[in-house]
């Protein structure tokens, strides 16, 4: 068997070296060695440079949003509210719709839409924004008309921003009255029931920008009087409150009747981060609650105040900002003044919001008194349909201090897919992050009320960000990744956010809360994770196992990790170089004439997904392939093409060194005798700069793997 194996191995080796020409290629590289410069890659320098470029790109996005906020606040300042305002606007549901007499319907004038590559080939209008309203908001409500009329002032700013920074994508203003102004304008399609459920006020970016981080304890009455519809409304209320919380918030839920119980016993006496997993877990438990017994509120209140006090006093825990108790009940027999006096007065550090469930008003004054004497808000919820509007009110109260002080905090969301926005249209399923900022009313007479007008935002596709850390600078097996200060991945080659259901690709439920430790699992002691969450700059090396070929084989490598923060954002950037291959770059000095001659050979191509030249900004360049763009750049036919000179130089060098392979392969192909060596079909090579060459040994119709 050994003799067979050796013979087989030897045969295979000689066939492969002969037909691939690998020995010739080695010799060609050896010949040019004296003229080469070999440069060692400095990972820390690289990661700092990438981070600076990313920071300046993200800063441009922030500046665009700041210009919109300023314009919106000024427009509001100069707008007199007019309750009988008549105003026609572009309603994204109704645009281009005609009635039976072939006239455009009201609010649905002609709106020119053209496909735009920059917006995933959707039909858009880049001169105007248009307005989307959820089905439950009346489209000619005076509040809506005044808001829409006032925010018309944003149109020129949207257009100007897009001209200044062509890498901007969607820009928008979500109003606290419920309308959503989106640029560029699109046609919005309802779901199969004819309903538009998208409400900008429920989106993560809106809620995060409108309020600061918060610690919340939800107290729900599960005594016997809550049976039936009241219990359903209470459950829906809790679920809605949970949906307004995000990664930066902390929460717990207490149910009370004769005694107090935490609905998740493991979370007794503490607050947990309101990330997706915890929120879903709470929702399941809330669903199982049953009403029985007699309600005693004071124990539940006492318990809640204790938890919040503990979190507040142990530095570094919780949201470090707002604290609130949400009391959900069908009535309070007394006002529990003693509890508040002991735990919350005179500072009133904890706001108390009360939700009175049902139509009963006997005990309403007590419930109202509790909220009003603890800097909270009181609302009565008598049907399931009222829940959404009433729950949203608490956000306005929590955002008041920010409004009064005019703190325009810049918010960056975790990565998410833009599918919610364009569920009705073709999915390119891009991961993005949103930068958002609140818009406040500057009118002097209402300044102390702290009126939030809405939130302005813009989407940043993470793909654009990663273009600034190109693969070719990182060498074989090198990659870059981004994570947030909550430890979640924004972008990583091992992040697989989609799964296949039948033929459709769907996002996994927790795709935006995948922790760094789940992909860089060799980081057992979380040294890398902790350093990156804290925004440190540093270096670390680890032995890793890397799956290649879709997980069929594993390589054992030693990787060097370099990381730093991206200032002005909650993100950190990591760059990974692998020892050996990834440490060096070859720099050859090839003249343009010599290189061009070899680049124009027929069987040569460049990695099209790499960016040798920027072709996606100027419409005239979009039709060029990367190879065509490089050639035009070198011949000077397109003087305004921006190209990466270092990479183009490497390509020229590779083209010249590998040119003799074509002749070698052709000679072999001509002298091949079909009988003795059937089975060799094709030879190809790829270089570090992304240049590929190939040659066929058989007619193209005979290739076994097309």
TrEMBL record:
<keyword id="KW-0812">Transmembrane</keyword>
<keyword id="KW-0472">Membrane</keyword>
<keyword id="KW-0479">Metal-binding</keyword>
<keyword id="KW-1015">Disulfide bond</keyword>
<keyword id="KW-0851">Voltage-gated channel</keyword>
<keyword id="KW-1133">Transmembrane helix</keyword>
<keyword id="KW-0109">Calcium transport</keyword>
<keyword id="KW-0107">Calcium channel</keyword>
<keyword id="KW-0325">Glycoprotein</keyword>
<keyword id="KW-0406">Ion transport</keyword>
<comment type="similarity">
    <text>Belongs to the calcium channel subunit alpha-2/delta family.</text>
</comment>
<dbReference type="InterPro" id="IPR002035">
    <property type="entry name" value="VWF_A"/>
</dbReference>
<keyword id="KW-0813">Transport</keyword>
<dbReference type="InterPro" id="IPR051173">
    <property type="entry name" value="Ca_channel_alpha-2/delta"/>
</dbReference>
<dbReference type="GO" id="GO:0005891">
    <property type="term" value="C:voltage-gated calcium channel complex"/>
</dbReference>
<feature type="domain" description="VWFA">
    <location>
        <begin position="215"/>
        <end position="398"/>
    </location>
</feature>
<dbReference type="Pfam" id="PF08399">
    <property type="entry name" value="VWA_N"/>
</dbReference>
<dbReference type="GO" id="GO:0046872">
    <property type="term" value="F:metal ion binding"/>
</dbReference>
<dbReference type="Pfam" id="PF13768">
    <property type="entry name" value="VWA_3"/>
</dbReference>
<keyword id="KW-0106">Calcium</keyword>
<dbReference type="InterPro" id="IPR036465">
    <property type="entry name" value="vWFA_dom_sf"/>
</dbReference>
<dbReference type="InterPro" id="IPR013608">
    <property type="entry name" value="VWA_N"/>
</dbReference>
<keyword id="KW-0732">Signal</keyword>
<protein>
    <submittedName>
        <fullName>Voltage-dependent calcium channel subunit alpha-2/delta-4</fullName>
    </submittedName>
</protein>
<keyword id="KW-0407">Ion channel</keyword>
<dbReference type="GO" id="GO:0005245">
    <property type="term" value="F:voltage-gated calcium channel activity"/>
</dbReference>
